[in-house]
Amino acid sequence: FTELQPPGSGPLAPAIVIDSSGRARFVLPDSIPAWRSRARVAFQSYPTLLSRNGDVPRPLQDDGLGIDRSHRDARLAMGLLRDGRLLVAMTRFEGLGGVLQNLPMGLTTPEMAAVMGALGAAQAVLLDGGISSQLMLQGPGGREHWPG
Length: 148
Hints:
Radius of gyration: 16 Å
Number of strands: 9
Helix content: under 10%
Distance between the termini: 30 Å
Largest sheet: 4 strands, antiparallel
Strand order of the largest sheet: 4-7-5-6
Shape: globular
Strand content: 25-35%
């Protein structure tokens, strides 16, 4: 494991850690130092969409707490289901024959939190968004598919 950059701090910036057994965990920022030696792969993202037990963090519920709750865009998020499986969800909205694909149109951050909860995530974090939201899937035989 090579650390490329030290972790940041902040209550809504968890690390997604894959340990040596291959199990994924969402690690709160204040617990990251304890996980550094046990991580096989790890990265940090922001903001938390769902904290433990599927709770929506207060900054996603009320204005003026550091999160832009009204901006609409394509979204990419990662969640952890209650059984430990990872869930990746990407929203992409296209209209008028693709004319709108590069415009900020889509879900707000709180709406993406609701989507992740509806899909069964107990914890979730927003990844990148906007026109840079992309996901590559690799199917049987190594066939690649880029859904957006």
